Each structure stands twice: as structure tokens, then as C-alpha cells.
Amino acid sequence: xxxxxxxxxxxxxxxxxxxxxxxxxxxxxxxxxxxxxxxxxxxxxxxxxxxxxxxxxxxxxxxxxxxxxxxxxxxxxxxxxxxxxxxxxxxxxxxxxxxxxxxxxxxxxxxxxxxxxxxxxxxxxxxxxxxxxxxxxxxxxxxxxxxxxxxxxxxxxxxxxxxxxxxxxxxxxxxxxxxxxxxxxxxxxxxxxxxxxxxxxxxxxxxxxxxxxxxxxxxxxxxxxxxxxxxxxxxxxxxxxxxxxxxxxxxxxxxxxxxxxxxxxxxxxxxxxxxxxxxxxxxxxxxxxxxxxxxxxxxxxxxxxxxxxxxxxxxxxxxxxxxxxxxxxxxxxxxxxxxxxxxxxxxxxxxxxxxxxxxxxxxxxxxxxxxxxxxxxxxxxxxxxxxxxxxxxxxxxxxxxxxxxxxxxxxxxxxxxxxxxxxxxxxxxxxxxxxxxxxxxxxxxxxxxxxxxxxxxxxxxxxxxxxxxxxxxxxxxxxxxxxxxxxxxxxxxxxxxxxxxxxxxxxxxxxxxxxxxxxxxxxxxxxxxxxxxxxxxxxxxxxxxxxxxxxxxxxxxxxxxxxxxxxxxxxxx
Length: 573
Description:
Radius of gyration: 43 Å
Largest sheet: 6 strands, mixed
Shape: rod-shaped
Distance between the termini: 86 Å
CATH topology of the largest domain: Alpha-Beta Plaits
CATH architecture of the largest domain: 2-Layer Sandwich
Number of strands: 23
CATH superfamily of the largest domain: Reverse transcriptase/Diguanylate cyclase domain
CATH class of the largest domain: Alpha Beta
Mean pLDDT: 83
Structural class: alpha+beta
Number of helices: 22
Helix content: 40-55%
């Protein structure tokens, strides 16, 4: 019996649907602090009837028992069992004011862990109120006796001291398929299946209650598994209450199997109550996190697993669970020793038949090795890219003399197109953004005509210097020709490119050169184009930037225009 109840405790919420089908079977389990770890739906119904309370996993059972004498008696029994005793007691419990007192036969059993330490207790309860009523009715009224007998849902058999049947109710007849008259012509041994029939008459005559599971023979010859609660009444007759346990055995076997599966599955299975407190923690969870089940029961799951959510991940998961009742994702957690663990987590919200939340179950699969391999691959890739970048820059420096504009020190047009081809191909391959800026110095011809070409060269050189100082290290500035320049912004989308250019534009507006004692301001007109994922040739990117530049000059200069297919996005300064 202990093995069965351990299975029920370990899989309570996960198997709530199964347990709820055990009609009429009253079982509950408590930890060493008298808190519920499992119970059948029949027990919940009885507690509602007796005390008017709705019980919950993780709550102290003693707090539900309102009558102080009953609460004291229950605690004394629990403490005896937690000290290693096994008890079978007939007890009366219930609210005296509400007249809900009932009689019960309670079987208390300790629950042991793998090293034989007591981790809780389980109680198997049989309602013997009808038997008590029959005993009382036999002492007072024959009419009451027969009324109670016929209303009982379980089979009730009355026998003499030598085991011959004196009375049986309708439920007993229906159970075996005999008529009342046929059963009254039999003895206990006639109905018990098996070669060796042992009836503990001695214990019954000593006033002990005996609960046993046997098989009775029906009229058709089919054996029926039953549980029999027997005792001797005050008038010397024997009474047995017989219940068909076929459905219970089937559900117990299924419960044991599910408990076995949960504890032997390779993934960590963690069941929690409505407050995210752990109520089941299988063997794989113990191996993955380093905590035993006894150490984590009742604790918050994220406290034990030390879950580290990414930004916004926890809120997204919560919203998904509310709508879809489940969520799956990768989480970073910690082993008991502090080691990093990555898991592929699958969470399912558990609800009862009425749609009420009763907790959740998480199945976590260890993907730490895969994540470490991915991180190593990423670091290797970044290292290779860095090496490539270093080599490229070394090569660029080596070739700098032939690739730069002699006046401004920027790259020349030819080298710009080499870099553009490389960056364009890389952006297409790795689907990275790429932006191109074309700008020219406003009214350079007027300055050349007024102050000479030497002043115009100073203006171009100063402009190139200001722009270069505002660019990031990987950005490329080249002189396209005359007063036109281009900027190649790798791994940069439209919005970021605009921000870079806007910063350059403002800095140039704040710059001036001194010519013949006069301070001359500088302005530029610029066009920006960003690579489209479907763009196949780099020439199109240049064409779009050129069109945007043309629009900037045509509409008054000293402004930035962003190219798009439908029209131009314009920013005027």
C-alpha cells in the first residue's frame, strides 16, 4: 500500500484527472508539517461536507479541522505515524453544530524516502457510518435496521458466529448476482474464492476490526475483487461491509505506472501548485539540479532552479500561458553548486474539470552541451571575422598610397567601388543591412570663382576632416569626384544611417574656414540609400543615393534626403 500512495503523492497534480475518477475512495497524504501533498476528490468532498472548507495542496490539514478535540486527536494520530507507527482506528469526526458527524475507519501509514527516512504519511479512509447506524438500529428498531440496510450503497452481510449468513442487503445481492434467499443458505466459505479460505474468527471474537481484500465468487462463477471491513457487533453477530474494488485496482495500477514513468523519464518533470511551489520533483530533476525531492518540496520553483530570464521573456511566457495554457522556450538556470544549466522548458497549465487553475507541470530537457557548442561556434566565428577584418585593414594600409585621394586623404573612387562590391556581397550573403551616403559641398564653384581654387581645396579638405572624425571605425569615406563624396556604412540600416549623417551635417554647419580675413561657413547636401534584401547589384544602391542627392540639391541644398521607392523622405536644415 505504501508504494501506491507514494505514487499518488509524487504525481498528484499531473494525475488529478485520474484521481478524480476514484469515486468513493478516500485517500490523502501529508508531509511532516501536516501539509497536503495529495488527496482524492472524494476526500475533498468529505472535508467540504464535514467542515464546510475547500482544501488545497500545500495547506495544513489541521487548520481545516474546526473542532478543537477533533484537531487534537488528529494531530496525536499524525505524530504517532510520523514516529513510525502504522494505525487502524475507528474514529468519529465532524461538525457537531452542523450535525455532520460521521464514523470512519482510518488506516495510517508512514511514507519513507529511498534511505528509509519518514517524509510524511498517508491515510486510507473507509466510511463506516452506515455500519455504525446498523449496529445502533439493531439495538433500537427493526424498521430502522432494514431501512438503513436497503439504502446502503455497499454490500452488507450479517452472519452468525459460525459464519452462516443471517441477512444481506440488496447491494450485496446485486454485487454477486444471487437472491437474498440463495445467500441465506450459504456460509462465508461458500462465497470466498480460493483453495485456502482463512477467516480470522479469533480476532473478530476479540472485538478487532479486520479489513481484508479477497475475491468472492459470483453466481456466474466469475471472481470479484472486493474489500471487506468486518467486525463483531455487540449482540455477537458478525457484520461485513463489502465493496467492489475493481475500479480502484485499475486506477491504482495506472497511477503506479504513471508514477514509474514520471520518475524514469529522461527529462526533469516538476509539478507546482497554484503558487508555483514544488509538489513533485522526479529523479531526473534531482540529477539535473542536484537537489533531492525532500529538499525542494514546498519551495518556489524559480528559487530552487535560479531561473535567469532574458529581458521581457518572463512577461511573454506569462501572457502566452494565460491564452494558450502552455509555453515553451529556452531558459538559463543554475545547478545546486552554481554551475550554469540551459534547458528547453515546456510548461503546461493544469486545470480541473471546472477550468480552475490547480497548478502546472514543467518538463525540462537539458540542452547545456548544445548551448555551449553554439557559444563556442559563435566565438569562433567572431574570432574569424575579427582576423579577417584585421587582415583586410592591414592590406588596406599597405595599398593606401594607391587607394587614397591625394588632396583630402580619403579613399578614391576606384577603391570605393572595390569596397562597395565586397560589402554588398557580404551583406547579401549574411543578410546584413548596408547604407550608402552621397554628399557634396554646397556652392564650391562659387568659392573657387570668388576666392580661387586653393581656397576651394582648403574647404574640401576641412569638410573631409570633419566627416572622418564623426564616422565609426568600420565606416568608409571616399571622394567620388570634384565636390562629391560617398560614405559606405556597413551593417547599418536606414534609421541608424540617418542618425550618423544628421550628426555629420550639424558638425559641418558649425565649421568654417578663414579666407582673406573672412570666415566662410560650410554646408552640404546629402542623399541616403539603404540596401533592399532583394537588390541584386550594388550599382542600384549608388543610383538611389545619387537620386536622393539630386533631390536634396534641387530642393534648396543644405539638407538630407532619404531614398525610398515611392518618394523621398526629406529632412531640411
